[in-house]
Write a structure and sequence with these properties.
This protein is of the alpha+beta class. It has four helices and seven strands. It has a five-stranded antiparallel β-sheet. It has a two-stranded antiparallel ribbon with strand order 4-5. The chain is elongated. The protein starts with a helix and ends with a strand.
Length: 175
């Protein structure tokens, strides 16, 4: 029985450490972001995942009650405070988010075209050989996703600390 108490104590200690470090981490987010606005039920999932907030992408988390939460973060440049730029930022990020959700759901079709050419020239001048080699490489990659995906509500917005990048998160709980 004593061993069980030790294991429970260790688990409690690990959970408390995680919760404490998560709290510190979310407080330190203001070192990386500004103007953070996140809907209350989604705060724990975004504020404790700086990588998702900074790099964007799709994340699906399975909750203890059996539900799932889906999060999608995208970004675009922040030009100014005008209404026109605000509309542009939201449209661009929403379209990117829907595309990201679609690729997560349906997968992506990738086509790559590569072309490499190499040229060597050797010149003999006054009995001395001189050479020159030129290599040229071209690679074009195209990704396509096709399908239908339900758009999710906007659940958060924030900016990079330098103010140059706007982030938008969409998401929802799934039964």
């Amino acid at each position: 029985m004593k061993r069980l108490k030790i294991n429970v104590s260790i688990i409690v200690l690990i959970i408390c450490t995680f919760l404490y470090s998560s709290e510190i981490f979310s407080k330190n987010l203001h070192e990386f972001f500004m103007d953070i606005e996140i809907e209350e039920p989604f705060k724990p999932y975004l504020l404790n995942n700086r990588t998702l907030m900074e790099m964007g992408g799709v994340k699906i988390l399975k909750l203890d009650d059996g539900r799932k939460v889906i999060l999608c973060v995208t970004m675009t440049e922040y030009n100014d405070d005008s209404a026109k730029d605000k509309i542009r930022r939201i449209k661009v990020c929403r379209n990117k988010a829907v595309a990201n959700l679609l690729t997560e759901k349906e997968g992506v079709q990738v086509a790559t075209y590569s072309k490499t050419s190499e040229q060597s020239v050797i010149v003999t001048e006054n009995g001395v050989e001189k050479g020159k080699s030129i290599a040229e490489s071209l690679e074009i990659t195209e990704a396509k996703a096709k399908g239908i995906v339900q758009s999710l509500p906007i659940i958060g917005k924030w900016r990079s600390k330098d103010g140059g990048t706007f982030f938008l998160a969409i998401g929802d709980f799934i039964e």
